[in-house]
Amino acid sequence: MTVTAAPAVLDRDGLDALVAVLVAGGRTVIGPTVRDGAIVLAEIDSADALPFGWGVELDAGRYRLVRRDDGAAFAHSAGPQSWKNFLHPSRERLWSADRTAEGGLAFTAEETDAPSYAFLGVRPCDLRAVAIQDRVLTGGRHADDGYRRRRGGAFLIAAECTEPGATCFCVSTGGGPAADAGYDLALTEVDGLFYVRVGSPAGAEVLEQVPRRDAGPETEAAARAAVDAARDRMGRSLPPVDLRALMGASLDAERWNEVAQRCLTCGNCTMVCPTCFCTTTEEVTDLSGDHTERWQRWDSCFDLDFSYLHGGPVRSSARSRYRQWLTHKLSTWHDQFDTSGCVGCGRCIAWCPAGIDITEEVAALDAERQAPGTESD
């Protein structure tokens, strides 16, 4: 549906009023806030909880919270969490069963009401990640009903990027710092003000309730210039090659042996990744044996038992598990979901304890493929 609502400008009080309107409407507002030495996503009831004046320094295996010279609220890179933590939670009960007096079993499906979420400060890379998870978890033969309930009522407020971090590489994955689709409202922070674009009828309805002023051409131009400048300041990039073809031609590359010597197979990269969706199930029984519950929880292709079949795991080496993750992410996702599984947020680089850099590994695979004496030469 085309939305023609005019852009507007909010000041800090207007941003606080936006949060108040969402809370008054019964929504659980989730946004970035400072906690435990990081910028994390948590429930907020006021814009005062946003990380005004805080930024981050990033590198491979490194994340540091730093004070800024200004009072910007959204001038930080993606933290350790993504919106996946709320839409596709790490642990969720699916059903429970109780033994009846007659000796049978009574099953009860878990159908709790999903929170009416409002996500404030969704980066454009994460908007793309939500769209990818929508495709994976709301369609096909194995749709996730819990995800569908939570996602169906979510209100998304994007925050366009004006200061990409050192581990960001969204442009080289086909994205960028601009919010192009998938949002209800989009904010661009410029000189202490927030230029607001409307992306849906629900967004227009909410904005109508917030004190604001019309956006003049100067503010619009400044917002667009700030986002355009960010496009040229990405900290990293993937090589400009056909990644599907590269990964398919690199299954026997020597580079996998090198990265396997550093990889701890801890699964941090899959936990922080905004698109990784793999789960397993486990059943928990009480001591009496009369009650049991089935829980779904996140799993990782780095887990030794993830590929377990009768007799042992299919991928027993660190080499095979890292190769599976990276090849699936950049290549075979296209076969399954018609998209790459990477949005270039850089979380897997910053939160890898060994400092393994996905862009460096792909560049090394490309260099090996092009080296003299290889089959592709």
Sheet with the most strands: spatial strand order: 3-2-8-9-10-11-1-12
What structural category arises from helix and sheet content?
A: alpha+beta
Overall helicity: 25-40%
User: Distance between the terminal alpha carbons, to the nearest Å?
Assistant: 49 Å
SSE pattern, N- to C-terminal: EHEEEEHEEEHHEEEHEHHHHEEEEHHH
> How many strands, which pairing sense, and closed or not: the largest β-sheet?
8 strands, mixed
Q: What Rg, in angstroms, do the CA atoms define? A: 22 Å
Which regions are unreliable across 5 or more consecutive residues at pLDDT < 50? none
**Amount of beta strand:** 15-25%
What is the averaged pLDDT score? 93
Number of strands: 16
State the helix count: 12
Q: Give the CA-based shape.
A: globular
Total domain count:
2
